[in-house]
Amino acid sequence: MNNHDAADQLIGLASQSPRRSALLDQIGIAHATIPIAVDERPLPGERPEDYVIRLALAKAEAGRRVRPTLPVLGADTSVIIDGRILGKPADREDALHMLALLSGREHAVLTGVALAGPASDHVLSVSRVTMDHIDPVRAEAYWASGEPVDKAGAYAIQGLGAVFVRHLAGSYSGVMGLPLAETAELLAGYGIRRP
Ligand SMILES: Cc1cn([C@H]2C[C@H](O)[C@@H](COP(=O)(O)OP(=O)(O)OP(=O)(O)O)O2)c(=O)[nH]c1=O
Prior knowledge:
Blueprint: E1 4-5, E2 11-13, H1 18-26, E3 31-33, H2 48-66, E4 72-81, E5 84-86, H3 92-102, E6 106-116, E7 120-131, H4 136-144, E8 165-169, H5 172-176, H6 180-189, E9 192-193
Parallel strand pairs: 1-9, 2-3, 2-4
Antiparallel strand pairs: 4-5, 4-6, 6-7, 7-8
Helix pairs in contact: 3-4
Thymidine-5'-triphosphate binds near residues 77, 156 and 175.
């Protein structure tokens, strides 16, 4: 496969998440965002690592159908605790319940990343985050900030939610939605290198 300078090879990013686009910008990958929507319900008994990869592939392939000439990236981030998959909260109640579950404990954040092109490939990033105790009054105030609404597990490590994070082992960018070392590796496999 030829090597391309990332600056002159455009890729598609099948995502509505402004964070994923900003993270790709951070490593100098020129991209066109492709808004797609996929069914994010887990299959019965589906393992979390299979779930995030399946969704990442579904997003990348949906994007590739819209822009068939571009290699297209898709990703999915989920918070895992007690074997349960926490996606974005459905409402306030759900968010408060998620924050109570995460309070004072360690959880995993899984991000699957997929690249759909003439051939498809994928990677998995696994991080461990330990949260401080989050009392219900703080959780309520955090919900009122508006930040939890579109974040897996109802918090954002890159935002106000950082005050709850005592320890991270893994990929900060992965917790934010796009693990950059793994994504760069995936793109390099496709001949797209930067820097
Ligand atoms: C845990 C955590 C998640 N998140 C975000 C990353 C993802 O955008 C979101 C999880 O939802 P996803 O379904 O992975 O992504 P999305 O719906 O935002 O975007 P799209 O499917 O269109 O690509 O949670 C943070 O921004 N910070 C965090 O600390």
